[in-house]
Every structure is written in structure tokens, then in C-alpha cells.
Design brief:
With 287 residues, this protein is mainly alpha-helical. Helices cover 75% and strands 5% of the residues. It is built from nine helices and three strands. Strands 1-3-2 form a three-stranded mixed sheet, with no helix packed on it. 35% of the residues are buried.
């Protein structure tokens, strides 16, 4: 048996190079803006630390996205869209303090980050050069006629629309968007609301369970199962029904805005993606 490695040169247009540079700048800006928000925060409590840490982890997401873009992965578009939208919400909720006026450096940093995220989305969805580059699938070992090659593997599932991929990526954010406010609420419970500890624990376990449920649902969603779309809608509504009241009850209106708004944005994107995918599939059917 012979082993061979297939090396394919991937041409990178100038727009793709510009996109990778922009993504690196966005990752750096995310860290800088979060450090500014932490520095100017009047109270550096546990909840702010959790939200800041989660927002800064998104800088790693942009670095992962750079890898997807460099490899020409087709999934970079929905990943970039969800990452950009949720980053704006995650950072924006920390710029405004509970009392008083936001500091000017924080506002300027947030404005810069919003512009960078908007530019990322524009290049991903409006640049023809980027669209022509992001067409590849993952690579793997393939055994063919006694030879093992490392090459691109076309998915066995039927082709899916970009909007369906967007819904899938948006649904994967449900779990962390549940876990972050649950952790924040855990800090509040330890302070003065110990009676609510079982509810917080159930909230945290729900966030973990949702990750497995979404993984199961989207696996069949990518295979064109209609019941999976109905299940994803039910999961989305259920997540909102659990998270929003708990945010309001345990974290107040401030927590509802800071932690509920990003989840609402992800849910809207997931449901809108399902709707657009259904329209695209209906339009492709022969009349």
C-alpha cells in the first residue's frame, strides 16, 4: 500500500488577504476594547469578569475564522456572520455602565469594533473574489485503489443553502449564551440569594443539555429532514422561554438586556436562516 499527500495550491486573491488582515485586526480590537471596558468600569464585580472573559474569547474565534478563510472553507461565511453579530452584542452590553455615561474611550473602541465587524460581514457576503475562494470542504485521508491520499472530502449529505448553514451556526451559540448568564447568576446567588441555587444549577444544566440537543438536531437538519427544522424552531423558542425570564428574575433588567439581547439576536438569525432556506428550496423546485 502506498501513501501519498496531495498538495493543491490555493490561490488567494487580494480580497482574501485583506479579509484575513481585517479579521486579525478585529481579534486585536476585541481584546483592547474589553480591557478598556474593564479598566473604566466603576465596579469590577464577578458578573463583569465573566462577561468580559466570554467576550475576549471571541478573539480566538476570529483567529479560527482566519484558518477557515485561508483554507477556503465554505463554512466560513455563516461562522463569520454569527461571530461578528454576537461580538457586537457581547461588547456593546459592557460599554454602557449601570449608572452614568459610558466612558469616551469605550465608546470609540466599540464604534471601531462595530465598523470592523461590519466590514468583515461585507467582505464575506459581497465580495465575489471571497465567494469564489470559500468553496472548499474539509480534507481527510481517502483510500482509493490501494493509495492513501490526503485530499478534500465532499460531504455525503445533499447540498444545503448558505442560510441553512447560518441557522446551524447560530444554534450552536445557544449553549454558551445560556451558560454565561447562569455563571453570572451563580455569583449573585452566592452573595445573597442562596435559595435560588437549585434554579441556577438547573439553568446551567439546561445550557449543557442544549448543546447536545442542537448537535443532534442540526445533524439531521443538514441532511434535509423537515422535522429537524421544526425541532430547531422548538429548541429556539424553548431556549428563549427559559433564558429571558431567568435573566429578568435573577439578574434584573440590566441582565435581561446584557445577556438576553445576544441570545435574541442569535435566535432571530437562526429562525430567519430557516425561513430563507425554505424560500430558496421552494424557488428551486420545478413548476
Amino acid at each position: 500500500m502506498r501513501t501519498a499527500v496531495e498538495t493543491t495550491q490555493v490561490r488567494r486573491p487580494s480580497a482574501v488577504r485583506a479579509l484575513t488582515t481585517l479579521l486579525a485586526a478585529t481579534a486585536a480590537a476585541t481584546v483592547v476594547v474589553e480591557l478598556l471596558n474593564w479598566w473604566y468600569a466603576p465596579e469590577q464585580e464577578f458578573g463583569l469578569a465573566v462577561r468580559t472573559g466570554w467576550a475576549m474569547l471571541r478573539s480566538l474565534g476570529f483567529l479560527v475564522l482566519i484558518g477557515h478563510v485561508n483554507r477556503g472553507r465554505a463554512g466560513a461565511k455563516p461562522f463569520g456572520l454569527i461571530l461578528a453579530v454576537t461580538t457586537v452584542f457581547a461588547v456593546g452590553r459592557l460599554v454602557v455602565p449601570r449608572e452614568g455615561v459610558p466612558p469616551l474611550p469605550g465608546l470609540l473602541g466599540f464604534a471601531l469594533l462595530a465598523v470592523l465587524c461590519g466590514a468583515v460581514v461585507w467582505l464575506l457576503y459581497r465580495s465575489e473574489a471571497v465567494a469564489g475562494h470559500l468553496v472548499r470542504h474539509r480534507k481527510g485521508l481517502v483510500l482509493d485503489a490501494g493509495t492513501i491520499t490526503w485530499r478534500e472530502i465532499a460531504p455525503k449529505r445533499p447540498p444545503v443553502t448558505a442560510w441553512l448553514l447560518t441557522s446551524r451556526v447560530a444554534a450552536f451559540t445557544y449553549s454558551p449564551l445560556l451558560l454565561v448568564p447562569a455563571l453570572v447568576a451563580a455569583g449573585a446567588v452566592l452573595d445573597d440569594r442562596l435559595a435560588a441555587a437549585p434554579v441556577v444549577l438547573l439553568w446551567f444544566l439546561t445550557g449543557i443539555a442544549v448543546s447536545y440537543l442542537v448537535l443532534f438536531c442540526t445533524a439531521f437538519l443538514m441532511r434535509g429532514r423537515r422535522w429537524a427544522r421544526t425541532l430547531l424552531v422548538a429548541i429556539t423558542l424553548g431556549v428563549l422561554a427559559v433564558d429571558l425570564p431567568l435573566c429578568w428574575w435573577l439578574l434584573g433588567v440590566d441582565g435581561l438586556i446584557r445577556d438576553g439581547a445576544p441570545l435574541v439576536a442569535a435566535a432571530v438569525l437562526a429562525l430567519y436562516g430557516l425561513r430563507r432556506a425554505a424560500r430558496a428550496e421552494a424557488a428551486s423546485l420545478p413548476t
